[in-house]
Design a protein that fits this description.
This protein is α+β, with helices and mostly antiparallel strands and about 280 residues long. It contains five helices and 15 strands. It has a six-stranded mixed β-sheet.
């Protein structure tokens, strides 16, 4: 999966003491996209300062992967190429693709929390942890992480795959998914999402794995669940265009297991559902 970058190591401890160095990488963020160079690389601090005369005093330290540090600058530079999720998840090496997901997550958080949601005053970065503080009313804002489930519903040697409506921008089959709601356990979310999207009941819910998915600010948690009793699919047509049972031999292939959803599909295809 995208976050599996071993032997590289993510070092996500926050500090406001790390100053930019010429070889550090700079994510220049705007509207849930980041600037990429022509070679699909993230510019170094040295390149960014030379090319666009950006001010290092406006950079925010994000994290490091091994000895490579990453900074953030929220700025639109006219005429340059900004890339979103479809491109960023394909970046190489995989550690750079993973880094871009975190940059999108934090870039969106900083952008949407410039002002206090309680009193409207400007927020300022905390000195010791990754948080934004309001000096006027004392409100503290931490990065938002939204838990969501991915559900592989199985029935013998079949698995249920669904497809979104065309306006969702993703036209491949995938597993049922949805966000955890207030007051629910993750198992509750599994049962509710399956019932809402395809009208089926499930049992024997078992955990598979999890994945941080910064593109949407989510923590994805994967479960397999067995069909409780045979019934006709009742498709949620406001969200889905199709839902279909596939035998292992008939499951469509995908060229990547970057996502938790397709990692789970491949695990079912190979009969390796215990992670």
């Amino acid at each position: 999966m995208l976050h599996e970058i071993t032997p590289a190591v993510l070092k996500n401890q926050y500090t406001d003491q790390r100053l930019p160095r010429p070889d550090d990488r700079l994510f220049i963020y705007a509207n849930r996209q980041v600037l990429l160079l022509a070679d699909q690389e993230v510019p170094t601090v040295k390149e960014a300062v030379a090319n666009w005369q950006v001010n290092p005093e406006q950079f925010t330290y994000l994290f490091a992967i091994d000895d490579q540090a990453y900074f953030l600058l929220r700025q639109t530079i006219p005429g340059e190429n900004y890339a979103g999720t479809p491109t960023l998840r394909q970046l190489s090496p995989q550690s750079l693709a993973f880094a871009s997901t975190i940059a999108i997550h934090l870039g969106n958080w900083y952008e949407t929390n410039q002002y206090c949601g309680r009193c409207g005053h400007r927020m300022v970065p905390d000195k010791t942890e990754r948080a934004l503080n309001c000096a006027n009313c004392g409100h503290v804002e931490f990065p938002k992480i939204a838990p969501a489930v991915i559900v592989g519903v199985t029935h013998g040697d079949q698995i249920l795959l669904t497809k979104f409506l065309s306006n969702y921008g993703y036209d491949k089959f995938a597993l049922i998914s949805g966000y955890n709601e207030i007051g629910e356990t993750l198992a509750d979310t599994v049962r509710r999402e399956v019932k809402e999207e395809v009208g089926l009941s499930v049992r024997h819910i078992t955990y598979f794995d999890s994945q941080p998915w910064g593109f949407s600010g989510a923590l994805l948690v994967g479960f397999f669940a067995e069909l409780d009793q045979a019934a006709d699919i009742q498709l949620e047509k406001d969200e889905l265009s199709a839902a279909k049972w596939f035998k292992r031999v008939d499951i469509p292939h995908d060229d990547t297991t970057a996502s938790l959803s397709w990692t789970m599909i491949e695990a079912f295809r190979q009969g390796k559902m215990k992670h």
